[in-house]
Structures are given as C-alpha cells and as structure tokens.
Amino acid sequence: MSGHNKWSTIKRKKGALDAKRSKIFSRIIKEITVAVKEGGADPDGNPRLRLAISNAKGASMPKDNILRAINKGSDKDAANYIELTYEGYAPNGVALYIECTTDNQQRTISNIRSYFNKFGGSLGTNGSLTFLFDRKGVFTIPEGTINLEDLELEVIDAGAEDIQVEDETITITTAMEDFGAMIKKLEELGIEPENAELQRIPKNTVKVDQDAAKKVLRLIDLFEEDDDINNVFHNLELTDELLESMDE
Questions:
Q1: Among 100, 124, 134, 190, which is least packed, fewest CB within 10 Å?
Q2: pLDDT tier at 163 (50, 70, 90 boundaries)?
C-alpha cells in the first residue's frame, strides 16, 4: 500500500524546516490547556490530553514544560481559549482554511482581515470552502520504529488509507472517523508518533504561475507567524519547480 501525497509531505517538511520551536511549543501548550479544561488533568481519562502530550513528546518538548502546561490548564484563572476557523481566498483563487486557538477573538479576526487585505485576498463566510477539503487523520512516525511490512498489515486493519515513506519518516493517512482507531492501534503496537492530527487535505489543487505561487506562500507564512493561528490549509498546487525555488 503506497502513494504520494505531495501536499501532506511537503507541509510536514516545510513545517520542520521553517517553524520556530517556540511557536510549536506555544501551540502545544494551548492544546494541552484546552484539553485539561475540557476533560480534566488525567491523561488516562482524557484522550485529547493524551494526544496533546504525545505530540509534545514528538516535538521534543521538555517534560517540565508539559507538566507546567497541565497545571496551567487546571488553574481556574487560566486564559479561556476558544477554537475558531476562518476561510478565505488568497490571490488567484487559492483557498485557505485557517484554524485558530485564541483568548481574544476580536484581535484574531482583526489580524486575519489585515493579512488578507495586505496580499489582495478576501475573507469568506464560515462553511463556504469546507467542501474543497477532506478532513483526514495524519500520523508521522520515524522510520525504523517497526518493520514496514508488519506495520502496513496492522494499520490497514485500523483504517489506513495511505502509507508513505520519505526522508526517514512514515506518514499514515486515515479517514477522519478512523483517527481514534489508529491512535489506539499505534498505542497497542507501542509506537509513539512524532505527530498525530486531523488535517484538511484539498480534493483538488489550483495551479498558478511561480511568482503568484510565491505570493500565496508569503501570505501563508504571515498567517503561520501569528500566535493565534495553529494551521493554515490550502489548495495551492506545489509543483516541483516551485519547491525547488523555495529551497534556493
């Protein structure tokens, strides 16, 4: 079972290269805080917290930081974060789906509008672009954790739709409804993913010329630098030529 989901692979590689560790940690701390407020501080009884802790370990977050985040979430005076999504278009009709966690909705929406305006994009109404993306579970695992053939047999039964191996990393993709089953299967196998999350994968991609594509990527980078924004999903076609120019 194999395939090549360039969008998912490049998103992972780009994130690994470009994302600042402090931003990654900030996002995980927010997720832990929300998970604790939602389901309590015991990871054994709180699947969302257990997943957040697993992702924290995968990002090499120190144990003390994880414990502090759990304690912070237990504090009744801790910030009340809300989870929001926004949808809109970058120039040339490239769709953007933006996931946020914020303690100030007004600040977040004001920033998002300003980013769109700066690059000639437009903020849409919620739900207007959802049909352009499939929500998938995406798991990344270091190669060598388990024999690949044995892993394939196990995870196909748990709902794996696609398995890729690239740059010493195994990426498993599942349908959204099989996300929990895959988490459970990997726990049974004693495998701790580097990262496990629900992503929005474009059903079709939009191809634009290289200069226009670079402008879209600069807008995406601007969104991703905002501390309130967790993920930016898009349907820009990432051509080999574009990716080579990004490495220059």
A1: 190
A2: very high
